[in-house]
Amino acid sequence: MNQTAGYKKHRIKNVVEISELVSIHYFEYSRDYKYHGEQHDFWEIMYADVGKAIVTCGDAEHLLSRGELIFLPPNQFHNIRADELRPSNVFIISFGVKSDIMPLLAGRVFLLSSEMRRLIRSIVQEGRLAFELPMRDHSLLQERDDGLFGGQQMIRMRLEELMIQIVRQELAQTSEGQSDVLSLKSRFDNQIAGAVMALLKDHIHGNLTIQEITQSLGYGKTYLSAVFMRVYGMSIMSYYAQLKIEEAKYLIRENTMSVAEISELLGFSSPQHFSKQFRQLVKMSPKQYETSVKETWGTSRS
């Protein structure tokens, strides 16, 4: 007996289809960085992960603040520069895509939700696992010999999901009676996690304990930890340590303080403890990082 009788296969409609990856970059710019610009026959996304960056696309200039993303269409001249106030971290990915929605996105800036930011972080992580990054040759992605199974497909799926989520958000905001695609619970989670994040940032120069956070916000440790993990994808103290090290990298690139001074400012018990934490997260010592910045951007300590 034919067990499939009466069933009809439904072909899935692909509203966004990434056909190829061209480049993946995660740049840590000095505050005076300027790129001369380029144009090419594929799409590109620029996302301000930390700090601010100024992007020129055609005749328009856009200020990207943290959490904002811009879609750069093919064959349009564009460039990027830091805002000259602080260093910035910018994620850039270029790709070929088949979709009727792209005109809706071209040259526009979008503020990403926490869910979308998680997709960006996942793309960065999968990119590092699938390819030799940073790219040695600007024009050619090199696959890693030890890359995880399905890594490139994961990048494609995350990128397609990101674009679909952005379009859904755009459609929801322009539809009558629908100004937010997030559920009430998600919005509340974001509010609580955001309050924790604000405390972490306010105490980046110093120290803050979980107990102090719970006392300040009036929520239990287990609840706060679960909400923060749900929104940001890591524990509170791990994120706090990451914030401190990112601030340390800024200060090193600003070129005005010694490693010992940075260690003290950020509340580490000793320069040795700071260097150990820095090496764990950056995979190089503070001194090695300083040297790499000089070699990359031609800066020197005055």
From TrEMBL:
Q: State which residue ranges cross the membrane.
A: none
Annotated GO MF terms? DNA-binding transcription factor activity; sequence-specific DNA binding
Q: Tell me which InterPro entries the record gives.
A: AraC-bd (IPR003313), Homeodomain-like_sf (IPR009057), HTH-like (IPR037923), HTH_AraC (IPR018060), HTH_AraC-typ_CS (IPR018062), RmlC-like_jellyroll (IPR014710), Tscrpt_reg_AraC-type_HTH (IPR020449)
UniProt keyword terms in alphabetical order: DNA-binding, Transcription, Transcription regulation
- Segments forming domain HTH araC/xylS-type: 194-292
> Which Gene3D superfamilies does this entry report, sorted A to Z?
Homeodomain-like (1.10.10.60), Jelly Rolls (2.60.120.10)
Q: Which PROSITE patterns match?
A: HTH_ARAC_FAMILY_1, HTH_ARAC_FAMILY_2
Protein name according to UniProt:
Helix-turn-helix domain-containing protein
